[in-house]
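**Tokenised fold:**
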Amino acid sequence: MVLRLFQIAVLLHLVGCTHLFAFDDASIAYQQQVRPFLEERCIHCHGADVQEGNVRLDQLSNRLEDDRVAAEVWHEMLNVLNDGSMPPETEPALDGESRNAVTAWITAELRKAAEARQHTDGRVVLRRLNRREYQYTMTDLLGLEMDYVRDLPPDAISSDGFENDGSALQMSSLQLEYYLATARQALDRVIVSGEMPAAMQHSFSESKIDGWLGNAQLSNRLGRQQEFLAKIDHDYPDQGEFVVRVQATAEIKSNTGFPLLELSVGYRPDTEILLREFPLVEITSSETKTYEFRGRLEDFPLPVRGQGKYPGLVIRVRNVYDDGTPPVPEQKDENQRVFYADEPLLPTLTIGSVEFIGNAYESWPPAAHRSILFEADTGRSDDEAYVREVLRRFITRAFRRPATDNEVDFYLSFFQSIRGEFPSWEEAVREALAMVLIAPDFLYLVEPAGDERRELNDWELATRLSYFLWSTMPDESLMKRAANGTLHESLVLTEEVERMLADERAMRFIDQFAEQWLSLNRIDNVAIDKEKFPQFQESLKAEMCKETKSFMATLMKENLSVLQMLSANFTMLNEPLAKHYGLASEFGREFRKVDLDASSHRGGLLSQASILLIHSTGSESHPIRRAVWLRDRLLNDPPSPPPPNVPTLDQADPEFRTRPIREQLEIHRSNEACANCHRNIDPWGLVLENYDAVGLWRESIGTATSNGPREDPIYAVDILPSGQEIVGVEGLKEYLLENRSEDFTRSLAVRLLSYALGRTLDFTDNQAVDEIVNECVEQQFRMRELIQTVVHSRSFQTK
């Protein structure tokens, strides 16, 4: 009997199980009905001699209350019995009496096991902040923008695809050293001493620089092949805040996009250019305006004073809008200077002036400093009571709960013990605060253990909610609600969730959940075949992912049905992606909501280029990858992995690779070892064959053969294992909406709850998932209501 073998095998591996317990004779129902069922229908594939998928059932314990691993295996057996995927087509069908008896026993035993674990589990949710959570938390805590994660290793990804799963987030001694170094570096910038440094100001009205690399034309009027360059030879600081102000006027053209202002700062060491760019600014108005860019010089490439052939700090301004048409050729004037003819159809920027201000502090000490070292009532910053209060306030914010007296005493004692080793009071305080920033209560989301499963207190709930929706520490409003003990109240919690979803920080939730649930983070792993797609630009990959994320964000902001992920009459487009799809009249870099008609062949996740490209080879579509993704991510029904002895596709036939993919798969299915799995996989992907590797619609496939090129028409029709015929992507969407909408909702609920909790769900979460799905159906599948239901669920509010 074929189970969801891969899931079970992974489960056994994760828990480190090296054996399974013997059967217990205590249950009469088990001995009379369930055990004979296993022996007759299962053990010949999962017994002592054969263990398909590395799963052995002849020794599976029937003591579900005592054996968590066994309970999970029984849970999977219940799922595949209920959804009809067991037995396989090659086995005789089950009679209703046997199926009902077995499923009834499993259901009852799982319920008893779940009830028992609710009183005895007491598991600690000890999860390290992942890279993005650490970045956002440090920024919010210290009030300083910098790259906090540059030296940190990549986060491991869980079996569900998430980067916030506590079981996958490990810690090493080297990593702890990086955390300490980062904390010290950040606090050196935040906590200042001495007098306010003098500002250094420079203004430039003309693009002029000697000895620059490249063939760009130096100019104040910027098309796509011109640059404005300014250089400060000596009078600039080596650290601290700086501001660059660019006065620019845009010349907007019809039937094309808007100019994109790019500002970068760096230098030329020798035969290369080292620059770091600020985020692009799209200019949609022809009005003359001044655009301000702020940063810290430590975060940009800086020349070493007194060294190098080309000293000086360089500021570069460009208009990087490009419509994809061939650029005009380079020309030279009588002085051999490069110039380019005007491109009248493209937008331009005219730079009026560029101003640089080093040491650009609005106040001294800066606001970030004052938020930590507030003004002392006594007027003495080294007073013990003042230091104690500084530590108490900082620890409370860092630990996301009130600091205890013991914690404050500990860090105060540390400060006093090191005070004599530092020349200034501020330096000693920095070191004490750096120790706070490597404490487990800061680096981990800690929820104290107990003998019983209990509700989270308001501080723990505020933290869990904030990292779910914002990926950062609770803000002042959440902290106040926690302090007065009202956050857990249903109306208050609903109000806070609505407030948080309306905040721009909620896009972090969309970015990360969509990226990880839908596997968008794999798009850069696909190498595009440049011979087949010569016009494809690598930058388009990012635009594809933005379409999917913007689409998800619109569902959340407008509280639309989550079923629109399966089929929608709109999508989110900007100019580059609209041109890729062949949809006219969309201009500009910003994504906007675009209504679709049937002729567009778009609408919903299945027709978005991000999904289609990721599950291709970069040269050809890949129906198997697309099918596996659909069943796994959208239906939470991943097919079993191929057995280790699966035969390869027919390599002996020289014409095999030139056959249409449908014929290749039919040949593959002729092998008995492959037939059963592929019957349950192939149809889901073959009906998407009208989309090529980069997500473009096609009616036929060109193939190179020994007799010359050949065009094969697309036949995107197939029959699902249920017997339902599907005609193309529209037929697939219709089938999913009419027959699998609740399965999709359950899959989304499982992934959403798993992401919210930072762990993989187990059978004890079944009741919560059932309640979330039922509530979602009652609320007409609306996305904000789904998020609210997750937050109000028992699983979310208990440890």
Observations:
- The first helix runs from residue 5 to 14.
- The chain has 27 helices and 21 strands.
